[in-house]
Amino acid sequence: MRVGFGRLLIGLSVIYLVMVAHADPRVERGSKPNRLVESKSPYLLQHAFNPVDWYPWGKEAFEKARREKKLILLSIGYSTCHWCHVMERESFQDEKVAKFLNEHFVSVKLDREERPDVDKVYMTSFQALFGQGGGWPLNMFLTPDLKPFYGGTYFPPRDQGQRPGFMTVLNRLHELWVEDREGIEAKTTDIHQKLTDHVEQLQRLKPGASFEADMLEGVVAKFLAGADQVNGGWGQEQKFPQPSHLRFLLGMEGKGREFAIKTCRKMMEGGINDHIGGGFHRYTVDPVWLVPHFEKMLYDQAQLLNVYVEAWQITGEQEFRATAKSIAEYVLKELTHPEGGFLSAQDAQSEGKEGKYWCWTQKELKALLSEAELAVAQKYFGITSSGNFIDHSDPEPLKDQNVLFLALGSKGLDPREQDALSSAVAKMKAARARRVPPATDDKILASWNGLMIAAMARAGRILGETRYLDAAGKAHRFVVEKLWDPAANTLSHRWREGH
I want to staple 330 with a disulfide (CB 3.0 to 4.6 A). Which of 8, 93, 278, 293 is the partner? Predict the structure, then answer.
């Protein structure tokens, strides 16, 4: 009786937290929670009121699949993932989709940030099977013995030209499983062996292999051969910051370093950089660093903090120093637990709308700013009446939204314009603070905290900011006190709400 009552209290507490934190309209409509409601993962809690009969990754789901001889849908994502939100809204809230999944599949949700080991296994499988880079959400279809045989990332709800919709995929896979289960199992056994051989080959070191200095020149040449020489970075349709590439190139002399500095400058000027609140968004959907997916990840901030500190050390350009400080200040303000640990991420959505918290219309700025402030803000940030961003995945997208970017590039402002800009930015900060903020993924991960502790301490020492050193020390103490078990000599991967 005590156990049942205790579990009831836990369930009610979690439901309350989900209602408060996410203001989920499905709760107000009386939707029943599924078993994910008992999870600590913010990502799993986002799916706790889906009509899909979700299971967390674990023995209960596996035994059900084996007992009922059903395929497993393993859906992997993270709480601030834009396309995870879209697919959750379009497919996993759909009663027809849920009914089909509940009848014919065992549906498993996994937070990739809590179980990076499982994510890596199935992402590697996807990449080997399809020859693609992959992404999230990652939806893998497994046999009851957990062997993958099909998968994809985001599936649209309905067929789009040659691209099958989610229900089409589900129907076809179920038909194949019913008609040729033995054939699929034989195929997955063969696939599993090939994947095992592939991974072993990647991990196998050549006997006698040695590092040679001229290899570095070859690596630089390869980086530059695939680079965007006009806009910096890598990629022609979307761009990620690639901080590891940039740090390597900053450490080299010549064209590699020049390209890295150019990329740092282009990112700093682009919409991927939050020019009001600091910090960098995840990536842009264009090659010019303009329109991002707006989530902000702790590990990106840590790595880019290192990049901009080094760029300032090399060039002496104050803009790079200011950018490094804006990253650190953002983390201290938005991604720091009161007891010191660093939080994982900030969502792209506010009130269910991608970019709503971050973007501006010309109309609202006219109401907010003086005539002089508006004139310089429009010129400096590239603000127009029609905007530069629309979320095409939203059935009712916001209109005329502007992602701020440095439209003047390296061109400066005269002193009077600079004063007006400073006043405008202060008003915009205050106005944005009154908006409904995006959700924060408040779990604390040991590995990501390690990245930020090191980056914050390094920035504090090099930039002469004792606050950063203090924050790094406080976060280190948090990890030692909350995640380290000296008796077992183990470090927990995650801490959230006391566990």
Answer: 278
Q: Decide if 298 contacts 345 (C-beta within 8 A).
A: yes
Q: Do 172 and 143 contact (CB within 8 A), yes or no?
A: no
Q: How far apart are CA 182 and CA 160, in angstroms?
A: 31
Picking from 382, 422, 419, 385, the residue whose alpha carbon sits closest to that of residue 404 is 382
| Fold held by 2-200 | Glutaredoxin (3.40.30)
pTM (predicted TM-score): 0.86
The angle subtended at Cα 90 by Cα 87 and Cα 94, nearest 5°, is 120
| Domain chopping of the chain, boundaries | 2-200, 217-495
